[in-house]
Amino acid sequence: MSLIKLENLWFRYKDRWIIKGVDLDIKEYKVYCLVGPNGCGKTTLAKLICGLLKPQRGNVFVKGVNTKEVSVKEIVKHVGYIFQNPDSQFFLNKVKDEIEFAQKMLNKYLDKNTYNYFLRILGIDKLLDKSPFNLSVGEKMRVAIMSVLAYDPEIIIFDEPTLGADGDTYKKILHIIKQLKERKRCIILISHDINLIDSIADYVIPMKDGRVFGIIRKNEFFGILDDIYELESHILLRTSGKWVS
């Protein structure tokens, strides 16, 4: 069974189509990096996968279940989504409550030993009584990650997790993704960071203008960049390791 299957998927905001006829079939517990210029539809596609948005045409299946036919809560049991801006994810006054909220709502719990290990690895075991809104940017991102890991979904979407991250947070996020990979979780990583992609990805899913160019092995992807992003307005600067648009 496919973990995620998209069939002729379309989505628009008002009169502009953001996702255009996307077909995708993800079957393995690997790290998939969703890449492309700003505005090409990456975050919208991620929100469609986790059920926060519903298709206007076509279908999204998560572990064989059509997202149109079930609640967001049912999809979130299988798919955890870590927002690009952690403040969009927070609404409780203590880090501990924020981390435990999804566990209790879904009645799904990561085993205690792994839970405590992830707390330490992410460096937030001493932040539990603090307000998530008063933390640094890096600490907020780590708390957002832990709030998803706490209920142990099989599929985890990271939306630009290293954007603006300090060096320590960057290392912690890289380490945690490697740990999840060893635990046979499916990771979808939205990132402009070529160094991160090169160090952690198994596959790359390139996007441009609302369309997807398949699932490509990482090493093969770097060899066909010019064929996919041939437009001067959508160029990957390899020297800086960043997408620009």
How does this structure look, described?
With 245 residues, the protein is α/β, with parallel strands linked by helices. It has one domain (4-90, 153-244): P-loop containing nucleotide triphosphate hydrolases (Rossmann fold, 3-Layer(aba) Sandwich). The protein has nine helices and 13 strands. The protein has helices at residues 42-49, 72-76, 95-106, 112-122, 137-149, 167-182, 194-200, 218-221, 225-228; strands spanning 4-13, 16-26, 31-35, 57-62, 65-66, 79-82, 155-159, 186-190, 203-208, 211-212, 216-217, 235-237, 242-244. Strands 3, 6, 7, 8, 9, 10 and 11 form a seven-stranded mixed sheet that branches. The chain has a four-stranded antiparallel sheet with strand order 2-1-4-5, with helices on one face. A hairpin with a 2-residue loop joins strand 9 and strand 10 (211-212). The longest helix is centred in the C-terminal third of the chain and has 16 residues, at 167-182. It starts with a strand and ends with a strand. Mean pLDDT is 89; it is low at 231-245.
